[in-house]
Amino acid sequence: MANWVKNQSAAAWVSIFAGVMAIVGLIIYIVNSTTGYLGSTQMNALPVVFTILAVLLIAAMVAAGNKASHWVSYIILLAVIVLLAVSVSVFVSTRTDVAGDQWFIPGMDTPEKGACLNGSIVGVVFYGISMLAVIVSAFMGNFTKDR
User: Fold this and answer.
1) Adjacent-strand bridge partners of 8
2) Whether the Cβ atoms of residue 138 and residue 15 lie closer than 8 Å to each other
């Protein structure tokens, strides 16, 4: 285990960070969708499935290290970005009515909708950090240190 940790490059650590941020965004999405103002609505499972697939792809890339060719690595990282972007899109699109009520319609703003909207914004920020970290890791090069 210690050798595995020593052999990981900065790109691998940034990718692991991206996976952790995606999981945090997913947890916030699930909590936000099942409690409070949106507790009585049905949660869309698409962000859950796509985020789990993205995290599994990140884990596979880190585990494979430099064994995969560069083209395969780039295609997988592009797939991770697409999966996370679709997750964010669904996350945001299901909250537009809450944002409209809270920000643009006088008298429709309630503390419950405000809390829902604030939680949604935090979740989208974590997804954004995750996507940014994946993009940065794509430009950093190899996932393991050369010996």
Assistant:
1) 144
2) no
